[in-house]
Structure formats: C-alpha cells, structure tokens
Design brief:
This protein has 425 residues and is of the alpha/beta class. The protein has two domains: 3-44 and 309-424, Aspartate Aminotransferase, domain 1 (Alpha-Beta Complex), CATH 3.90.1150; 50-305, Type I PLP-dependent aspartate aminotransferase-like (Major domain) (Aspartate Aminotransferase, domain 2), CATH 3.40.640. Helix content is 41%, strand content 14%. Helix 1 packs antiparallel against helix 13 (400-424) and helix 11 packs across helix 13 (400-424). The two termini are 19 Å apart. It binds 4'-deoxy-4'-aminopyridoxal-5'-phosphate (PMP). 4'-deoxy-4'-aminopyridoxal-5'-phosphate (PMP) binds at residues 37, 101-103, 139, 184, 189, 218, 220, 254, 256, 261, 266.
Length: 425
C-alpha cells in the first residue's frame, strides 16, 4: 500500500489511525535517545579491564628504558604507532599517536594549515575565498570544523560508491580556492557505505588546482564490521604512492569505538613532507602525549587478542541492534513509499531518507513522543538538507529493547509526517 496512491479520504482515515497510535505512545512517557553514535554501557564494560592493566609498577618503564610517566616521545609509543598504523594501513614511521580524540587532531591539522600553511601554498587564513568539499550526507562535526574556520562548505553528493567523483574531480581540478575534502571512507557516517576501489583510485590520482589541497581521510570505522561479509576498502596510502601523489592524503583514526570514547587513543598519519609541518606545530603545542594511556591500550588490546578480537566482542553487542532496527523498518515501512534506509555492513549508523520535505517533521514528532534523534539537516553543511529528507539513526547506545521501541516509534512518526505532507498537497 503506497501512501502516494491513496485517495484523500483514505489518507485521512490512515492519519486518524496513526494519530491514535501516536497518542498511546506519548502516554508511555518514553525517554529514548538515538541521536549520537555512542557505545552503550555494555560496550564500555568490555574495556574495563584496561583500567587494571597499568597497576603493576614495573611495566610503566619499557624494556628500552622509556619511562611512560615522563615527558617525551612526541610521536607516541613506537609499539602503539605500529598497532594503529597497521589498523590504518600506514607505515608506523608515518603515524603520530596523539591524545584522546581524532577530531581534535583534525581540528589541529586544519588550524595548523590556517596559520602556517602547507608546502606550496600560503596560510589558509590568507585565502579569502577558501572552500572545503563536504560529501553529504556526512559527519556534522567535520563540517562544523571547517565552518568554524571560515571555509565555504560545498556539498558533494554521496553515491553508493562514495562521493560523486565526477563532481570532485571537476571542482578540485578547476578551483584553487578548494583546499580539502572530508572523507569517511569505510562505513561512512551516516550512510554506512564504503568507497569503491575506483573511487579510492580516483582520489589517489586527483590533480588539484591548489598545490596545498589535502584529502582528510577519517577512517573512524576502519575495523567496525557488523557482518560476516565485511566491506573492503582499498588502501589510499598505497594508491597515492603508486600515483605519485604521496602528499595528498592525511589520515585519521582512533580507538574511541574500540575502547573508550573520550579516553581512547587517536592517531594521524601522513607523508614525511606533511608530517614535517604538523610535527613543528605540535612541538610548540605539547611536550608529548599521554603515554600511560597508550601503554594501557597496548597491554589491554594485546591481552584480549588484538583489535580484531576486541571488535568481535563489540559486534556481538551492537549487531543485534542494527538487525532489530532493519527488521522493524522492513515490517513497518517497506512498500509504503515513505522511506528508504541503508543496511550497512559496519559502522555506527543507519541513514534514512524519508519522503522529501518530511525529515524535520518526523524528528519533531519523535521528540514529542520521547525519542531524541540527530537533528534533521545535521548531516549536511550548515545543517541544511536541501531535500529535508535525511535522518541519521544511531542504534548503539540504548539497550536492545529500547532500540526496538524507538525504531517502532520512528516508523510511526515517519508515516505520520508523510501522510500530513500528502494531505497538504
Ligand atoms: N570521525 C567520525 C566519522 C566519527 O563518527 C566520530 C565520532 N562520532 C569521530 C571522528 C570522533 O572521533 P574521536 O572520538 O576520535 O574524536
């Protein structure tokens, strides 16, 4: 029964039925949150043992004499650089392990380019019409960083293969004011798609008009598989070497969704040329990162059998939540022409496109009935979804039963919003 094919009278009957259900839900006084991609308490408990790993006084001094309690090792513990480098597909020597947040490292990298610039260009703050490409729907905090630094944000459509590379190539080739692009190449936030091999190769082969154009490759979900058929992402580092473009990408990742968000370990990686610039910046910024936290992570992750083993345990908790949401969407929404949604093989989100013009209303109705979602529009530059269609659903945080309740309510609200829209037209 497609809503679009119903007569006005049928729609009115349907609207009354939906409203009745909605009132019943409201009366339940729900207070659920599917707004941000946060691990649940159960997931955080997986890493609790880490807090005990450091208690031995003997292991804070490494066999090579490094005292993790003291200043030094600005690039981080060598073994941690190796571990995160392996996860990111980069040589350890090209990885800097920093503090607790990769977003912080991205902010710092942009800030460094703003004030000091990159080889071949001037400081970005002197570029009056600086612009940044934002594949959308995308990660709101990425867009926020470049908006904060005064870039014009340019929307690039997302395709099932990644950003529309015809658009990216055309813009980057012709406009020297474009300084970079945000990318979440694996299990993208929020669409869950992984860039195709062709997309990665086209990124590696870009010939930007700006000599200081950079690809900000935020591989936040590189090991966050949810199924037995995980996506495979081609290694951009290798492809850039082959294409003779080693300075083009800057890589980021963290253990935020492997251990503790807010108390994990973040890393960035880049070519020697790029790292020379960033290291100089960090040299003034800090006398070194928190090596005790890095050590804690090393000891803990080795003890549990490595990052892949830890991610299997994470998957066991969150995969059922994704499955539940997908099942409910299928039951409640399929065949109604109300919404389309992604079925990701990994990551933290399900991305829903409701009928254009209905996203804000759906989110508002959910809120009214006690379910908080990411604000409609948040996945686009300036929080403006031109279609008012995309909604990011983050099922990891609430317990499974609450996820199910929230997903059902979401379906009800989406149907109400679309029904209203059709009755208006
Ligand atoms: N990048 C992406 C794509 C994310 O989704 C998130 C968390 N929501 C982050 C970065 C934040 O990472 P961190 O905790 O390392 O700052």
């Amino acid at each position: 029964m497609e809503f679009g094919k119903l007569s006005k009278t049928e729609l009115k009957t349907l609207q009354a039925q939906l409203a009745k259900k909605f009132d019943a839900c409201k009366a339940m006084g729900l207070k659920l949150n599917m707004a941000r991609g946060k691990p649940s308490a159960e997931q955080l408990d997986l890493s609790l043992d880490m807090l005990d790993q450091i208690t031995s006084r003997s292991n804070v001094v490494l066999p090579d004499g490094t005292d993790c309690r003291n200043y030094g090792l600005a690039d981080g513990l060598p073994e941690m650089r190796g571990m995160l480098g392996k996860m990111m597909g980069l040589p350890a020597e090209n990885v800097i392990v920093g503090g607790n947040s990769s977003l912080n490292m991205m902010f710092d990298a942009i800030s460094c380019c703003m004030t000091h610039g990159l080889p071949g260009g001037k400081p970005w703050c002197l570029e009056e019409h600086r612009k940044f490409l934002c594949p959308s729907p995308g990660y709101d905090r990425h867009f926020g960083v470049t908006e904060y630094f005064g870039f014009e944000l340019i929307t690039v459509p997302m395709l099932p293969t990644g950003p529309d590379m015809d658009v990216v190539e055309k813009l980057v080739f012709s406009d020297p004011d474009i300084k970079g692009i945000w990318c979440v190449p694996k299990y993208s936030n929020p669409t869950g798609i992984t860039y195709s091999d062709e997309t990665v190769r086209r990124f590696a082969a870009l010939k930007p008009a700006a000599p200081d154009f950079r690809i900000f490759w935020d591989n936040a979900y590189c090991v966050h598989d949810l199924t037995d058929t995980p996506d495979h992402l081609l290694n951009l580092w290798d492809e850039c070497q082959k294409a003779g473009n080693p300075d083009l990408p800057v890589f980021f990742a963290s253990t935020s969704k492997i251990t503790f968000p807010g108390a994990g370990v973040a890393a960035m990686g880049a070519s020697d040329n790029n790292l020379q610039v960033f290291r100089k910046h960090y040299k003034y910024q800090t006398i070194g990162p928190d090596k005790l936290n890095q050590l804690r992570h090393l000891l803990f992750l080795k003890k549990v059998g490595g990052i892949p083993a830890q991610m299997c345990r994470q998957r066991a908790i969150i995969a059922p939540k994704f499955e539940a949401v997908e099942q409910i969407f299928e039951q409640e929404l399929a065949g109604k022409g109300v919404a389309a949604w992604t079925k990701p093989n990994g990551g933290y989100f399900i991305s829903v496109d409701v009928t254009p013009g209905c996203a804000k209303r759906t989110v508002a109705l959910c809120k009214e009935a006690g379910v908080t979602l990411t604000g409609a529009g948040a996945t686009f530059p300036y929080h403006k979804d031109p279609q008012d269609s995309n909604i990011r659903v983050a099922p990891t945080y609430p317990p499974l039963e609450e996820v199910k309740q929230a997903a059902k309510l979401f379906c009800l609200c989406a149907q109400m919003a679309v029904c209203e829209k059709l009755l208006e037209s």
